[in-house]
Amino acid sequence: FIMAKQVEQLEKEKKELQERLKNQEKKIDYFERAKRLEEIPLIKTAYEEQRVHDMELWEQQEEERITTLQLEREKALEHKNRLSRMLEDRDLFEARLKASRRTVYEDKLKQFQERLAEERRNRLEERKKQRKEERRITYYREKEEEEQRLREEQLLK
Predict the structure, then answer these.
(1) Rg of the chain over CA atoms, in angstroms?
(2) Domain count, the chain
(3) What is the distance between the alpha carbons of residues 120 and 68, in angstroms, rounded to a whole number?
(4) Considering the domain boundaries, does residue 138 fall inside one?
(5) Which pTM was predicted?
(6) Between vectors from CA 140 to CA 138 and to CA 145, what angle results, nearest 5°?
(7) pLDDT at position 98, please?
(8) How many other β-carbons are positioned within 10 Å of the β-carbon of residue 85?
């Protein structure tokens, strides 16, 4: 009987514990749900504020970028105007430089042409001498062969 009472008591405590846990779970769930319901409008307003802030920041940065680009363009135009005064001097300098380099080029070309012509003449002269020598050697060889042939014919006769 005592044991049955103890088992019954234990089951009763177990059910009470489960009931308390269930109630506690409901309270936590209700609390979280309420907290989320309260947070949603706050999150939306914070998001909107951040979006507005980001938009203002972007517009400010864009204005700074445009201003910087305009300043750079103005500086570039000033440089162009300042350097345009030197344009004639630059063109004159380029013309002088090109003229001097052209004369140097033409002198070197003339020297090269002269050396080329001289080398051609030398080679032609050398070739003439070589051909003349070859013809002379060929002539003497043929003449000697002819004499040899004639001597052999005479010996045969």
Answers:
(1) 58
(2) 1
(3) 68
(4) no
(5) 0.39
(6) 95
(7) 97
(8) 8
pLDDT at 1: 80
**Exposure of 117 by Cβ count < 10 A (0-12 exposed, 13-18 middle, 19+ buried)?**
exposed
The rounded distance, in Å, linking the Cα atoms of 120 and 45 is 96
Neighbours of 46 (CB within 10 A): 11
Spatial CA neighbour of 67 closest among 155, 75, 123: 75
pLDDT of residue 47: 95
Structure tokens, 102: 């052209």
Distance separating alpha carbons of residues 91 and 84, to the nearest angstrom = 11
Which residues of the chain have a pLDDT value below 70? none
At 1, the amino acid letter reads F
Structure tokens at 9: 């008591």
In a domain, 73, yes or no: yes
Is 1 strand, coil or helix? Answer: coil
Q: Which amino acid is at 143?
A: K
3-class secondary-structure state, position 85: coil
Task: Name the residue range of residue 10's domain.
Answer: 1-126
Angle value at C-alpha 87, between 83 and 88, nearest 5 degrees: 145
